[in-house]
Design a protein that fits this description.
The chain is mainly alpha-helical and 115 residues long. Helix content is 45%, strand content 10%. The chain has a domain at 25-94. It has three helices and three strands; from the N terminus they run αβββαα. It has a three-stranded antiparallel β-sheet, covered by helices on one side. Strand 2 (58-61) and strand 3 form a beta hairpin.
Amino acid sequence: RLSQQLGSATGQVALQMATPEVPPAPANIPVKIEKLNPLAFPKGQSLTCELTGKPAMVSLVTEYTTLHFASKELAKVAWDGILCKIVHVMGKVLAQPSLVGSEDERERRLAAVNA
């Protein structure tokens, strides 16, 4: 029984150590829901809803990121549900990874790290 409790406790500690801490969301993040104008985008380019994959009709705009949704109701539900809690870290998650440069640049970076 004690070994089960110890095993359970060490598993909990390992789980706590493995999950990175997410900073708490700032209070009262300003948000706007704006209607999209389809004519504002190049021909052939259309934005898709983050939840449904349908053509986006509105944008949810914050100081951290802009997300597109099929309807105002979907945007409101997503914001009230989870987005208001995680939008401040979503930019880092959604950002494009930096491109690997030339071989010379990689060697300079390696030399800088090893120095």
